[in-house]
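Hi V.,

Quick status before I head out on leave. The structure for the redesign project is tokenized and pasted below; the design run finished overnight.
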């Protein structure tokens, strides 16, 4: 019985070896059949990986270049050559620079021109600042679907206070939720009295924040 069992075990081992050899032959046939395709695939992968790394390197160098130009321009704001270089290398940073300068100088014309910026954040902020400067209630109201909705509502309320439309302003302020970052100012404004100056109230609220 022991010899018989050993014989069966040897047979099973031979069958296992045969299957391994059979699989190896099949793999060899597949390799010979598709080896040129595999070579081509390997070459394509190597080229793609090299291109990916090269693109990363170029993007990094470009980012460093534009950052350097932007930093130099902040130090030399009257340098037109640097401004032109920034415009050619990065439209986003160029628009950001124009926005920051317009904000500093109260330049309504530049803010209006940035309404066409391809950068959605700069466009949104420029719309808000321009509408605030020219006291455009409709322009501020159109921003109710933007991330700075609460700031637009707050600014709109200020303009209504200036027009002595106190009830309308307070109703508008009800749209700002307690979780908002400007809710503290809203609370103060809701206690505004006709003989008070809303700008002074805003100043007090800023002092409280500090």
């Amino acid at each position: 019985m022991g010899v018989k069992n050993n014989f069966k075990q040897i047979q099973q081992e031979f069958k296992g070896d045969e299957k391994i050899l059979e699989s190896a032959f099949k793999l060899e046939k597949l390799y010979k059949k598709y080896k040129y395709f595999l070579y081509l695939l390997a070459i394509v992968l190597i080229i793609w990986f090299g291109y990916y790394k090269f693109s990363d390197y170029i993007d990094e160098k470009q980012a460093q270049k534009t950052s350097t130009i932007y930093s130099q321009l902040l130090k030399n704001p009257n340098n037109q050559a640097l401004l032109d270089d920034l415009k050619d290398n990065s439209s986003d940073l160029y628009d950001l620079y124009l926005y920051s300068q317009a904000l500093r100088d109260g330049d309504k014309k530049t803010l209006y021109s940035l309404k066409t910026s391809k950068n959605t954040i700069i466009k949104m902020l420029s719309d808000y600042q321009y509408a605030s400067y020219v006291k455009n209630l409709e322009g501020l109201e159109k921003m109710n679907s933007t991330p700075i909705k609460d700031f637009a509502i707050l600014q709109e309320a200020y303009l209504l206070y200036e027009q002595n439309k106190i009830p309308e302003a307070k109703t508008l302020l009800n749209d700002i939720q307690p979780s908002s970052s400007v809710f503290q100012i809203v609370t103060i404004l809701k206690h505004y009295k006709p003989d008070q100056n809303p700008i002074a109230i805003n100043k007090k609220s800023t002092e409280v924040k500090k």
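Above is the designed sequence. The CA atoms of residues 18 and 24 lie 10 Å apart.

G. will cover questions while I'm gone.

Best,
W.
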